[in-house]
Design a protein that fits this description.
Low-confidence stretches: none
Domain Choline/carnitine acyltransferase: 23-81
Number of helices: 4
Mean pLDDT: 83
GO molecular function, one term: carnitine O-octanoyltransferase activity
Structural class: mainly alpha
Keywords: Acyltransferase, Transferase
Radius of gyration: 19 Å
Largest sheet: none
GO cellular component, one term: peroxisome
Pathway: Lipid metabolism; fatty acid beta-oxidation
Strand content: under 5%
Helix content: 55-70%
Number of strands: 0
Shape: elongated
Length: 89
């Protein structure tokens, strides 16, 4: 009985997954603004200013290229989300 309940719930939860529209890719600017908003409560003024500088550099540089790749991925994939790890020394 327990196994049947779990399977039944899973089927109902994902039953209409294929008929739902994909979420749009947010703009780079919107994403970076949300990122800065999420960082602000945890950073002091100096840390936040440095973070803003890094975000601006990212936005003006590789961020544009990565965002373009994300937009391209979204054209052909239902789930366009992917993770990019950037390590700055």
């Amino acid at each position: 009985m327990e196994n049947h309940l779990a399977k039944s719930t899973e089927e109902r939860t994902f039953q209409y997954q294929d008929s739902l529209p994909s979420l749009p890719v947010p703009s780079l600017e919107e994403s970076l603004k949300k990122y800065l908003e999420s960082v602000k409560p945890f950073a002091n003024k100096e840390e936040y200013k440095k973070t803003e500088e890094i975000v601006q550099k990212f936005q003006d540089g590789i961020g544009r290229k990565l965002h373009q790749k994300l937009l391209e991925r979204a054209k052909g994939k239902r789930n366009w989300v992917f993770v990019v790890l950037i390590i700055e020394n």
